Amino acid sequence: MARALQLSRGLDPARLRPAFERFGRLHLPGILPVRDAQAIHAALLAAPYHRSLTASGKSYDIALDTLAAMPPERRAELEAAILEGGKTGFQYQFDAWRLSDLMEAGQRTGGALAPLEAVYDLINSEGFLAFIRTLTGDPRCAYADAQATRYRPGDFLTAHDDDVAGKKRLYAMVLNFTPAWRPDWGGLLAFHDADGHVSEAYTPTFNALNIFRVPQQHAVTQVASFAGAERLSITGWIRER
Questions:
Q1: Is residue 154 classed as helix, strand or coil in its secondary structure?
Q2: Looking at residue 1, what is its pLDDT?
Q3: Among 150, 151, 148, which residue's Cα sits nearest to residue 119?
Q4: What is the mean pLDDT of residues 125-148?
Q5: Which of 7, 96, 106, 162 fits as disulfide partner to 52, beta carbons 3.0 to 4.6 Å?
Q6: Which of 174, 150, 154, 175 is closest to 230 using CA atoms?
Q7: Nearest 5°: CA angle at 110, between 172 and 178?
């Protein structure tokens, strides 16, 4: 069983609140003690990912070995559908491991994945949720969900606002755990303004929390073919009951 996680000492959500209120988003580095962030990075490297994607307007979760065994012509058709969809609509492709689904089903495995399970416990702890309520000034924050994600070269997530009827999403969050990342490798969390410009973008900085109000138009820019690492993170939403 992993040691319980706590936020880094010295973080003052009341002091950070004006910065969050200005744009409805915040990049917060040093969110966890470094030793814990390093353990989470190692666990993300070992996670049993599947391929998460959309093609021809439908969402799919495909086992990586199934994808590898796919006939070349079928794989080419799938890749063509992904690229075509990315030209005009909501489209994504990346690797995922649905942490919340497993935790809520009581399917804890411990071992190498215990640090990821500890992240789920942290973001659903009263201490973390109280931190978010103070940061945002929003008393409705009741629980959080999460998935581990891995973006490799070519992976992306096109523009969307996270507002899905019935999901009761209040805030989106991204916890980044790639030890080193260059902005020119892509994989940026980019926010779009009403004129179609990128108003701000966050590099996936190691051990940083990105949090933003829902709805808000954003995307993850495509990871470059020459990227020197995998973009590893835990993403999810803070919700009301």
A1: coil
A2: 54
A3: 148
A4: 98
A5: 96
A6: 150
A7: 45
- For residue 39, CA distances in Å to 9, 66, 110 come to 18, 29, 13
How far apart are the C-alpha atoms of 62 and 79, rounded to whole Å?
A: 13
Q: Are residues 153 and 227 in contact, defined by beta-carbon separation less than 8 angstroms?
A: yes
Tell me which amino acid residue 47 is: A
pLDDT at 89: 87
* Alpha helices per DSSP H over the chain: 13-23, 34-46, 64-68, 72-88, 99-104, 114-123, 126-136
Three-state DSSP class for residue 69: coil
Whether the CB-CB separation of 139 and 197 falls below 8 Å is answered with no
55 three-state secondary structure: strand
Pairing of strands 218-220, 92-97: unpaired
Length of the chain in terms of residues written? 241
Structural domains of the chain ordered from first start: 27-239 (2.60.120.620)
Cβ-contact 79, 126 below 8 angstroms: no
C-alpha torsion 134→140→141→143, nearest 10: 150
pLDDT for the residue numbered 2: 66
How far is residue 4's CA from residue 122's CA, in Å, rounded to a whole number? 7
The answer to whether residues 172 and 212 touch, using CB atoms and an 8 Å cutoff, is yes
DSSP state for residue 236 in the 8-state scheme: E
15 alpha-carbon distance from chain centroid: 25
d(CA 234, CA 119): 9
pLDDT of residue 151: 98
